[in-house]
Structures are given as structure tokens and as C-alpha cells.
Amino acid sequence: MTRKYSVILGNLGNTCDRFLSSGYKDVLNKDMMIKQAASIEGVTGIELVGTWDITLQNLEQMQQSLNAVNLQCASIIPDHFGQKKWGSGAFVSTDKAIRDEAVEETKQMIDAVTALDGNLINLWPGQDGYDYPLCTDYIEDRTRLLDTLGECAAYAKIRNVRLALEFKPKEPRNHSYLARTSDTLLIAQILGDNVGVTIDTGHAFMAYENVGESIAMLKMFGDKLFHMHFNDNYTHWDDDMIVGSIHLVEYFEILYWLEKTAYTGWISMDQYPYREDGCGAIRSSVLFLQQLAGILDHVGVAEIDRLIARRDPVATSKFIREQLVAR
Amino acid sequence: MTRKYSVILGNLGNTCDRFLSSGYKDVLNKDMMIKQAASIEGVTGIELVGTWDITLQNLEQMQQSLNAVNLQCASIIPDHFGQKKWGSGAFVSTDKAIRDEAVEETKQMIDAVTALDGNLINLWPGQDGYDYPLCTDYIEDRTRLLDTLGECAAYAKIRNVRLALEFKPKEPRNHSYLARTSDTLLIAQILGDNVGVTIDTGHAFMAYENVGESIAMLKMFGDKLFHMHFNDNYTHWDDDMIVGSIHLVEYFEILYWLEKTAYTGWISMDQYPYREDGCGAIRSSVLFLQQLAGILDHVGVAEIDRLIARRDPVATSKFIREQLVAR
Amino acid sequence: MTRKYSVILGNLGNTCDRFLSSGYKDVLNKDMMIKQAASIEGVTGIELVGTWDITLQNLEQMQQSLNAVNLQCASIIPDHFGQKKWGSGAFVSTDKAIRDEAVEETKQMIDAVTALDGNLINLWPGQDGYDYPLCTDYIEDRTRLLDTLGECAAYAKIRNVRLALEFKPKEPRNHSYLARTSDTLLIAQILGDNVGVTIDTGHAFMAYENVGESIAMLKMFGDKLFHMHFNDNYTHWDDDMIVGSIHLVEYFEILYWLEKTAYTGWISMDQYPYREDGCGAIRSSVLFLQQLAGILDHVGVAEIDRLIARRDPVATSKFIREQLVAR
Amino acid sequence: MTRKYSVILGNLGNTCDRFLSSGYKDVLNKDMMIKQAASIEGVTGIELVGTWDITLQNLEQMQQSLNAVNLQCASIIPDHFGQKKWGSGAFVSTDKAIRDEAVEETKQMIDAVTALDGNLINLWPGQDGYDYPLCTDYIEDRTRLLDTLGECAAYAKIRNVRLALEFKPKEPRNHSYLARTSDTLLIAQILGDNVGVTIDTGHAFMAYENVGESIAMLKMFGDKLFHMHFNDNYTHWDDDMIVGSIHLVEYFEILYWLEKTAYTGWISMDQYPYREDGCGAIRSSVLFLQQLAGILDHVGVAEIDRLIARRDPVATSKFIREQLVAR
User: Fold this and answer.
1) Which of A261, B8, B57, C133 is the most buried (most CB within 10 A)?
2) At a CB cut-off of 8 Å and minimum separation 6, what does D308 contact?
3) Is residue B310 part of a domain?
4) What is the CATH number of the domain that holds B133?
5) Is residue A262 part of a domain?
């Protein structure tokens, strides 16, 4: 297996939060950011966000920029979260016109990704959820979600594009509809074979998932892991930190399960380096994962199989000390 | 709709924890506990735990005790958690003999519940999970889970008994296989129409679920809500407190969604009154829920429908102040 | 005791988050917002944020606007979080010039609040913290924090202004230095008698504090509760919701302890009504607290004293059903 | 600096939880456990729990057992949690007789530790807290806590024994009075110079503390770090796992700050190996910490000083990859 690394373009630029809406850094030139992404050892793909990075208007120019540095379009993430119109929901909006726009934005990005020789849409319906109890008709919303996502899936299917649904327990809504691996899997199963799941490691940590188990579950229930986003956090919020800043063993376990389940998708970085050098932060994550992958390849999957078959935390601790931690 | 209230017998007795294994109270006489349960206004059902309360040996005696106070057997909860042999898993144990015992215990309790004129088994595979990363073959375990639970489901099916699978994110294992509504639903869908889900409100709060949404989801995806356990907590752990000690609006929303989805199962109390009077604590929860149910009936579901259709937290706040909080 | 209610002006306006930096609403006219605040029954005070609402330049105009609607300046919250320069810390910045600016901004706002006939500065050093382990000299930072805050405290002291330090476990930093009641109290004790603590109920819930206990602790250790911000959340994040959307009993307990400890400060609303009507959301919180305060006054503190002296959750549950929940 | 490693004797034996009160293992012979403890490379100290391990009756015998294997008594942990009488509080019990017993148990253990040539009491008032809101007089309780602990401190002082107060946010109570570093520090400051704090790494992780920062704070505010307990967890509960099973960087940072602050106390293991081999699990933690300490010594504190002075997560990530993770 050759592992394919990619990054989300916007991670290299300015980032803001609700207290500092102008952002912590200066706005970077997009072409510069693309060059930075391409300069990271082993990175061959890039993810683009709708509105922010890619529209039907700048398609050709983007293609040239990517070609110039030899980057593939790993996926497009259509914008269903970054404009006022999505504020009360995109795919589940009570306003039919907004739902239609959400579908239309997806279709345009399906066309765009095809034009860029990509075949993956990473859909993150971040505004589709709710904030308060006793304010929402959950059946109505989930029905709309199935309808609108279904329309996107059908459009994608005949264009050989796959939809990877990205879950997150909360933020920007207090509760998201696509909240965890298993509820997203339930929806992907209904929507058909070109619809699967994106695991963002940080979103999963925050949901108290063990990502290794989530990968295994997606394998079992229809080979539904379509995409992976990597970042680290303190497990209580989507801190979007450099991979390996907090966790070690779980990342190694993730790489093992990706190998075991014959995952062929992208290993993509998705961070929010608010105050750090963006390119350096992304590069650090790639290098960390490459280092762990190197250990995995050296030790070999069969050896980990034997370790796991022992089901003994004492044996695993020995392995951690001997193979994962420096001596 | 007539709401049916029940309690778990053991909640009325002694309870312990890992620091005080002898328990915080004295052991109560079981017949006394049954009489206490029957004395709670509106309680007509009781849940019995295998080994602790019910075995094939004391079946007849239990029947007499329940008849004497006019209590129905709401469910039996087979013991898959309270003996050393289950310590490393029951349904997913690596030891075939243990898995067989787990199935056998279930079958015996299916027979027992039938003998007691009940038709519901509440299965809580609390020891089926894992504690450490990089120690477990998740695919092997989940396959075993499907196999052994499948055998139980088949046995139950021909006896017209329903299996309600109870999930919990963790405890006693650091990670449970049946962890949340949606992963349990996935398994129930595979196992057939006599297998569904138990929502324990405290387990769901702890998993950051909005229980109203969970009920709606189970309705949509196969009418899979079979049973409900009630208790309250601070949302970070399974504190098993008196209902209404912390939350208000969410319980009201739960009762609304039970009504909307035409739930006909039990409203059962499941608490751990470590230091309080057990019967008083359980009774308090029943009274709290009955009070909220009274408000719901008085206001009417149609009125809540209209409120929810507004999707306006300000309107909901007005409703809370005017209908739920005393003036 | 007469309770004094106030609101933070900016809560009535537009709010944004990291995904939607332009905000969920249109920008409101500031004079309109002031009129809205004044229109909420029982609200007599307003909190102003430096830079956003108040500067030395618009002081006179603001005074006229407040006078016109008869609102007092409850506090000024100097801006130590909303500009790029504070991004890596204000009071603990490694750059002496930035620390000086943080102190200068505070001094200007001390002058401003005095000019507005107020006497309270609510200091929230939100950017003073850190994001990653193994990146920070905690002793150096805390020493700086004591130095710079000490300079502010001395300046405030001779102007009869009190500094209320507002804690929050995290956001915008992954770890804040002023994180919880007790670590903030430790600093307030050192800085002198005109320095105390602001409890934001949502920040405290998120820190797993029982606010009633926090109020009691501040009373015991120097009468250090200077200010209160009110909002509600799911206890896992600073959701900044309408008061009473999730919790009931804890707010009642808070009002009881404010009364017991003879708190004479403001009861101020601090929310982020991203998608709701701002004024309606703030007003809802005020009305909710006034309703609970009405119950408290009706029942009487002595009655709650007796309830608490019983230390019996069953008795408290009875009280909740009979006095707090509608019947 | 020579690091001193110790273990809590009971960790090597049987452990139970609320569902399996008989425990997951067989009861081990105490002498065997002492020999096992002594057999762990580098372990020279042992902590004994009152009632469970040590009483005034078996003092001489214990002394012989420890002498035989050359183990020092690192501390005694008096039993204020494991008997029914402590169920509603020990040091803050409303019953004066119970409070007196809590003090008496402490005094006896002060005598015992002196007899065993030790000088440290680790006090964990685990039952001193509360479970429900609106049930407790927090001022009364905290006053009692100061009184009773004060009596213990005075008794210890003239015997040259130090009291280390161990905090924990919750369990067995839903809220503990000694909950976090800073509230415990506040109490230690009042009680005098022979009273300090124990940091249990797992309790601190669960409280969302960065232990490095906690150590630094205790240094600054009176050199109050008296003792350290080590274990790992998923940061949401006191899972009491093998050190290094989840976290890496934070343990390294802890060892660095212990060095920086010239900590001379014990590095003691405190785990609950429910299902694993107890001795193997404890030994694994010791070996993990020794390995990290080896890296720290090799790299040198001055080098980490320089790294930290950069305050750059990208530089720290490089350090993690180059010095902490295997290559």
C-alpha cells in the first residue's frame, strides 16, 4: 500500500474565531499557499473549500495552479457553513429555496471536482443541527437530510463521484445531525454505494470514539470509510492541533487499522493553526504520521496482529515502550 | 395513551462502588423491596436482574411475590456483568465456553420472563467492550457480538419475546461496544424485528445525545425503541440520580417524543441511590415524570407541535417559563 | 435586597464564529441596541466592551445615550481578546510592549468607567493561556500575570474602582490561566481587596463547578464575588444559551446563595444569541431569573435553609416538584 | 536528583467496581504482593492504605515485611472512604462522632507512619463532597473541613509528618470538596507549612488540568507539591490505566517540571488494573516513566528550557518526533 497524503488548502491561511473575527494572522496569497502545500514532503493532494478556494469561475485558474506544482485535487469540500444563508441549516433548512441552494452548491462542486480530475466530495453539513431542546422537529429534519443528500448522491453517482459525509458532534451547532461514525453510517447505508463517511480524528476523539474501532466498524458495515482528516486535540473540543501533540498510541492504531482494512483513500490534514506557522504546523502532522507509518511498516502488520491477539495491556505497554517511544 | 411505570427491583436495595464494596446501606429483604415498589403510586411493573433477583430456581416464588402485590414483570435483565466469569466480556469473550454461557443465561431468562407472563428482555452487555487502545480486534469482537446476540434473538423470536439492547458509552469498560443509540440501532437492524434498543436517559446524556432526537431516530429507522430507563446526571458520568434533580426541559421533550412516536413500552426507573432512601428516590422520579406528563396532557401535543414548528428558542423559553416552571 | 439586572450590550448585536466570520445576522445600530436593552423589564445596567462599544473618544456620546434611557454603566469589559495584537496573550505576552498596552487599555477603561459613574471593571484575559503542552513557561507567565494585573489593580484602587477577574477553562486558548473559581481567587487574594472574581455561570458549568458552592467559597475566602454573568449551556462548552434552557435547580440554588452571602453586585446577562433575536434571548433570561427569584422570595430563605439542613435528595426532589416545577 | 519510585500496595491485588463487587480477580496474599512490589526495578517505596493494609495492630509485622524486602514506607493513606461509616462524609460529616473518628484514624496513621520511619500521610477525603444540588450547606462543610484537617495538621506537625491532600473532581461523590489543584492549594495554604498537595495525574487530566502547569503553580504559591500519583486515562474519568497507554508528551512535561521545581518527593504508581496482571501493570508504568526520565536526562533540562522559550508548537512537534517518538 502506498499512503497518499493531502492537506486542506485553507489550513495554511488565516484563521479566526468568534472573539477575533479578523483572524490571528494576515491573509496569505492563495498561490503562495498552494506552493507551500506542494513543498511538504510526501504531500500529493489538496482539498479545496467551495466559495473560499474554488468556484465555477476560478476553475481553470485553479487547475493551472495545481498542475504547476503537481498536486491532485483530493476532494472538494462544498461550502455549506460559511455564509449567512446557511446559518439556520443548509440541507435541512425549513426554506425550500435554501435546501435547493445547498444541493446546487454540491452539484456545482461535483462538476468542479470532475473538471479537476478528482472524484471525491467531502460533505460537511456543519450548520445542519440544532441548538436548544424543544425547538426542533427531528423527524422532519432527518427526512429532509435524506432527501437533499439523496439528490446529491444521485447526481454524483452518474458522474462517478463519491460523497464522503463528515460528522462532528457539535460546533457550529450545539448538536449536529451527522454527529458520530454510526449515525453517519446509517445515513450512508441508505443513500447508496457512492456515499460513505469521513472520519476527522479530532471530531471522533471529541465524541469519545476510539478511531481504530470506528474504522473497523465502517469496514464491516459496507466498506464505508471514504476519507480521513487528521488533527489532534485534548478530547473535549475540536482544538484542531498538530497531530501527535497529545496522542501517540491511538494514531498508531489508526494507521494499523487503515492497513488492515485496505484503506486506499487519502490521509489528509485538517487543522486550525490559529497562532502558529500554518505550513509548519501541517508539515509537522504529515511528518509525524509518516514516522509512525514507518514504524508500522518496519514492525509489520502481522506482528501487531499477534500483539492484539494477546489482548493484554501489559504486553501492549511493552510494545509502546519498545517500538513507539524513543530510547 | 396510558403510560406504564416500572422500577428495577435492585435500585431499592443496597448499592456499592469500587471504594466501598460492602455497600453504603444494609442489605434489604427482597420481599420488603417488592412491597415498596408496589407501594409507589402508578407503578405497575418491575424489572428483575438475573442472578441477583431471579433464577430458574426462585421463579415460582417470585411469581407469587409479584402476584401478591399485583406487579407485572416489565422485563428481566440477564446478568452479564456481575460475576467474575464475565470480567473480560460475555457475548464477545474470546472463550467460546463463556460466550455459550452468556447465550445460555439469556435463554434461561427468556424462559423465565415468559413464565412470569412478561415478553421483554433488557440486555445490557456491560462487560463487552475494551479498556486500552491497541489491545483488541474490533472486527472479531463485533462479529462475535452479532453471532451470540443473533442466537439469543432467534431463541426469543419463537417465544414472542423482544430483546431490548441497552447501550452505554463506558463503565465498567472504558469503551463499550453498545455505546450509543445509533451503533446499537445498527446491530438491532441486522438482528431482526424482535430486537430493538433501550434508551437509558443517563447513558444518553453522558453520550451527549439529545434523547428526544434519539427517540425520533429510532422511530424513523424501524420503530426500534423497545424500552426506556430513567435517571438523571450531570452529563459527564452515569450518576444515576433522581429524575429532575438536574434536567427539566429535556425530560419534557422526551415525554413529548414518546407520545409523538406512539411509544407503548414501559417508563422504567433505573437509579443508584447510594446514600438516599432507595424507595423514596425511585418514587421521586416517578412523581416527577408524572407531573411533567400531566403538563403535557394538559397543554396537548398539538400545542407543542406548534411551538416546535416555530423553531425559536425565545418562544420555547416563554413556554418553559409559562408552562414548565412554577409561578 | 433589591436585585440589579444588567446586560452586555454586544449580546444584542451580531455574533460570529470561526466558520462564519461575517456573523449570523446583520450589524445592528448601537443606539437601537441600547434602547432595546433599556426596554427589558427590570434591567437598569449595561456592560460595555472596550473597542467594540466604548473608547475614550466616544465617552461623552455613550454617556448621553445611557442617560437618555436611564441605564447605569454596570461595568466595562476592556478589550484584551478582540484584536490581532492580543493573539498570543495580553497580560502575559512575551512582548513587553504588548503587556504595556494591555495595562494601558485597562487604565483607560478604568478612567472611562469612572467618567460613566461606574466603579467596576470586568477583566477577561481570554487570550492569556496556552494551546499545547511543552511550549510554555508557566511560572514566567503567571509571574507576568501577577505583575500586570497588579499594576491595573493599583491604578484602580486609588480611583475606587473594583476589578472583577472573569475565569473560563478554555476558549479562545486551549487552556486559560484564569480557568476556574479557585485559581482566580488565589490571584485575587494576592492582588488586594479591590480585586475579586466574576462567575460566568456557563464558564463554571463547563468547568464542572456547582456555582452555589463556588459562591460560598468566594464568600468564605475574602468576600471575593464581585460580579456575575448569566447564561446556560449543555455543560461541555460555552454555548452561551438563554438561561433556563437546560438547567433549573442550579439557577435557583445560585439565587439562594447570592442571597445567603449578601451579594449586592449585578446579575448580568452574557449570551451569544447567534441565530435568535438578540433582545428576545436576553430578555428571556432576565424573565427566567426574575421568576425564580420570585419563588425564592415567596418561599423564603429560611425555608431553604431548613431544606438544605436535611441534606436529603428525596426532600429536595419534593421541593423541586412542589415549588419549582409547574403543576 | 535521584528519582524515587513507589507503588500503592493495594494496586497489586484484587479490584472491584459497582457491578462486580467481589472483584475481577482472586484475592492475593499480602506478603506476596509486597514481594512483587519490591521486585519492580527501581521501586524503593510503598504506600499503604489504612484498614486494608495497615492498622496499629499489624504494624510490627508490616515493618518486618517491608524490611525483609528493603522497601521504605513512602506514605500511609488513611482509610476515609472504604467503610460504611464514611458514606456521607468523614471530615465534613454532620455527625461530630464521625468527624472525630476521621481525625482519630488520621492520628493513628500518623503514629503508624512514624513507627515505619515514614513522614508522609496522603489524605484523600474521597467521601467528603456532595451528590445533588440544593442539598448542602457548602460553607458549613468547608468550615468543618478546615477544622478537622487543621486538627490533623497540628498533630502531624509536632511529629514532623507532612500531610499531602489528594484532590479529585468526583467519585465516589458527584462533587468533591478537594476537587482540583487550586482549591486544594487554598486549603493547604491556610493549614500551614506541613500541609501540601498530592497530584494524581489521572485526577488532574479528568479535571482538564495540564499537570505541568499545576506543578508550576504549586511551586509558586508556597512550594506545596508534596506527593505525586501516576496513572493514565482517556481524560473523561479516572480510568486508572497504565502510564503511557494514552498520553506521552504530558508525562514528559511533568518530569521536566518536577526537575525544574526541584521536587524531591516520591513518584508513586496508583492504578486499578481491574483485569490485567497487577504487578505487570504497575511495573509497566514505572518502566515507562523511567524511559522518559532517561530521555530527559540525556537531552538535559537546559535544552528543554530553550525549546519552551521558543513557545512554538511547530518546534515542539519537531522535538517530539526527534526525541520522544521512536524512529
Assistant:
1) C133
2) C134, C135, C136, C137
3) no
4) 3.20.20.150
5) yes
C94 touches chain A (CB under 8 A): no
Contacts of C241 in chain B (CB under 8 A): 313
Instruction: Name, in order, each residue with C-beta under 8 angstroms of A303's C-beta and a sequence gap of 6 or more.
Output: none
Cα gap D52→D32, rounded to integer Å: 15
Residues 239..298 of D with a Cβ closer than 8 Å to A: which? 241-242, 244-250, 273, 276-277, 280-281, 284-285, 287-288, 291-292, 294-295
Given an 8 Å threshold on Cβ–Cβ distance, is B244 in contact with C312? no
Chains touching C (at least 3 CB pairs under 8 A) are A, B, D
Q: What is the DSSP letter of A138?
A: H
Which pLDDT tens digit goes with each residue over B283-322?
A: 999 999 999 999 999 999 999 999 999 999 999 999 999 9
Closest residue to C142, CB basis, from D130, D210, D220: D220
Identify the DSSP state of B29.
Answer: P
DSSP labels for D238-279? ---BPTTSSBSHHHHHHHHHHHHTT--SEEEE----SSS-HH
Q: Which helix (H) or strand (E) holds B176?
A: strand B175-176
CA distance C88 to C74: 29
**Cell numbers 445576522 correspond to what residue?**
C25
Residue C311 belongs to some domain of the structure: no
**AA identity, residue C104:** E
Crossing angle between the packed helical segments B211-220 and B249-260, to the nearest 10 degrees: 10
Residues sharing a CB contact under 8 Å with residue A223, sequence separation 6 or more, in sequence order: A196, A261
Euclidean distance between CA atoms A266 and C42, whole angstroms: 57
Q: Transcribe A208-230 into DSSP letters.
A: T--HHHHHHHHHHTTS-EEEEEE
* DSSP one-letter string for A181-208: HHHHHHHHHHH-TTEEEEEEHHHHHHTT
**Mutation to test the C interface, candidates A51, A174, A246, A276, most C Cβ within 10 Å:** A174
Q: A320 to chain D nearest CA, in Å?
A: 8
Give domain status of residue B321, yes or no. Answer: no
Residue B71 half-sphere exposure toward CB, CA atoms < 13 A? 30
Q: Note whether A19 contacts C172, CB cutoff 8 Å.
A: yes
Going by C-alpha positions, the residue among C162, C240, C248 that lies closest to residue C198 is C162
Flag whether residue C126 sits within 8 Å of chain A, measured between CB atoms.
Answer: yes
Distance of alpha carbon D92 from alpha carbon D103, whole angstroms: 11
* Structural domain harbouring A145: 4-297
Rounded to the nearest integer, the mean pLDDT of chain C is 97
Q: How far apart are CA C159 and CA C154, in angstroms?
A: 9
Confidence grade of residue C1 (pLDDT, cut at 50, 70, 90): low
The total number of structural domains in chain A stands at 1
Average pLDDT over residues B220-249: 98
Q: Check residue A222 and give its pLDDT.
A: 97
pLDDT band (50, 70, 90) for residue D1: low
Q: Is B323 on the interface with C (CB under 8 A)?
A: yes
CB contact under 8 A, C220 and D133: no
Identity (one letter) of the amino acid at A15? T
In DSSP notation, B226-246 reads: EEEEE-B--SSS---BPTTSS
Q: Chain B neighbours among C 208-247 (CB < 8 Å)?
A: 208, 234-236, 241-242, 244-247
pLDDT tens for D56-79 read 999 999 999 999 999 999 999 999
Whether D225 and D199 have beta carbons less than 8 Å apart is answered as: yes
Q: Say which of A138, A221, A249 has its CB closest to residue B216.
A: A138
CB contact (8 A) between residue C185 and residue D185: no
Q: Report whether pLDDT(A1) > 80.
A: no
Q: Are the C-beta atoms of residues C274 and C17 closer than 8 Å to each other?
A: yes
Q: What is the ipTM of this complex?
A: 0.97
